[in-house]
Amino acid sequence: MNTLELWTSTIFEPADIVELRCIKQTAGKPIIKKFWHEAQNLPREYDRLRTLNRHGFNIHAGVNPRIAKGKSGDSNVKLARCLFCDFDDLETGDGCGPEEFISIDIFEAGLPEPSLYVNSGNGIHVYWRLDEPLIDLEKWSHT
Questions:
Q1: How far is residue 81's CA from residue 28's CA, in Å, rounded to a whole number?
Q2: Quick check: 106 and 120 in contact, CB under 8 A?
Q3: Strands 17-24 and 58-61
């Protein structure tokens, strides 16, 4: 199972619509390509996404499912299945790698063990899958 398959199966239900934003910085303005896929079909895009990444695109994905394909932004989030946190540009020490460094912070904060850790290349992203999705997205954004 590759990282995309693991991420998709941990974060989403099969019919959830996932928004992907592929962004490449240029001398002028950024080039942005957007795609929407049902979560169950997203792993089929693995090779395509790796090719875009090799061509300088950073791949960003909405963590919460969208209400429909072609819909972007907070107002088009259907519900929240996860809480997540990005730990970017880490400076680790004492012989710990980034994952261990984050695990210690999570433990010391009294948080439960995350459902998933992902090394994004720029840091560590952690996800906690909720037992029940939140429909109240204002509550989710303040959690």
A1: 37
A2: no
A3: antiparallel
